[in-house]
Design goal:
Helix content: 40-55%
CATH superfamily of the domain at 16-143 and 219-290: Alpha/Beta hydrolase fold, catalytic domain
Number of strands: 9
Number of helices: 12
Oligomer: single chain
């Protein structure tokens, strides 16, 4: 299956100077590491990659030591064997990576599905951060255009392993722009170019679609009830994938969570990295003041 080549496809990758590759859990991980201070982990969502943090990471790196990987099957992280792209498989793979890096983050920041993976590890006591930050967390199914398109593509993937290749062959910049706008977001041309590069790569499309096809959210309420660490829920007020009202449902299980609402859509951290960085800094500062 055609994959992304870091020398070619990643030649202008955001924060390329912070990139390296690490073998762990049967994967060759693409990881970016930058900044100094308390350790913080950034985890992107389905169909994304480390490029999603291009605006936020430099701001956070002014006060934190960041580690940000590409998820299994996404962008430049590739399998050296069979991929388990279930929620359980993602959690186990991430745990293996953190073990290989000997990295124990005090802050974990997850976008969309990335927040769900982190939530599973926290709920099971396999990750013990001081602060859990969720950006438009996908604890419940997508709504809107993404809620229709992604499940259909996931079913096609289940029936036909070539679906990822077929999707990549038919994807173009216009279609990617429509998908992003359908999630309520507007990003710059370079960001759109990066997403187009990813969505026209068969390996990345297959990884994202298989992730959705194997995503089981039935245990989410139980996971949420077991999360006792301080939690910050950042909500994009124009998110059309995870509707803003879903935060009320999340808070029925996480009544201690703080909510910050910002203008922007599903990838609000790309639209307003300064607003997201300030919200995280404020939550971290408040936590330190209490200790």
């Amino acid at each position: 299956m055609s994959g992304l080549d870091f020398d070619k496809d990643g030649a202008d990758w955001p924060l390329r100077e912070a990139s390296r590759f690490v073998r762990a859990g049967g994967l060759r991980w693409h990881v970016q590491e930058l900044g100094e201070g308390p350790p913080a982990l950034l985890l992107h969502g389905a169909a994304g990659a480390t490029h999603s943090w291009r605006g936020l990471a430099p701001l956070l790196a002014q006060r934190f030591h960041l580690v940000a990987p590409d998820l299994p099957g996404h962008a430049f992280t590739s399998a050296e064997g069979r991929l388990d792209l279930s929620l359980k498989g993602h959690a186990e793979a991430l745990e293996a990576l953190l073990g290989a890096l000997d990295y124990k983050p005090r802050i974990v920041i997850g976008h969309s599905a990335g927040a769900v993976i982190l939530g599973r590890l926290i709920a099971e006591g396999r990750l013990a951060p001081d602060l859990f930050v969720c950006i438009n967390a996908a604890f419940f199914p997508f709504e809107g255009a993404a809620g229709h398109i992604l499940p259909i593509m996931a079913r096609l993937m289940h029936l036909n392993p070539l679906a990822g290749r077929l999707f990549a062959w038919t994807a173009d910049r216009r279609q990617v722009a429509l998908l992003i706008r359908g999630m309520g977001s507007q990003i710059d041309d370079f960001g759109l170019d990066l997403y187009t590069r990813l969505m026209t790569a068969p390996s990345h499309c297959s990884g994202a679609l298989e992730m959705v096809a194997n995503w089981d959210l039935t245990r989410i309420p139980d996971d949420l009830r077991r999360i006792k660490v301080p939690t910050l829920l950042i909500v994009g007020e124009n998110d059309k994938a995870i509707r803003p009202h879903m935060v009320d449902r999340i808070r029925t299980f996480l009544p201690h969570a703080q909510v910050v609402r910002l203008p922007g859509g599903h990838i609000v951290h790309e639209e307003d990295p300064r607003g997201v960085a300030d919200a995280i800094a404020a939550a971290w500062g408040a936590l330190l003041a209490e200790t």
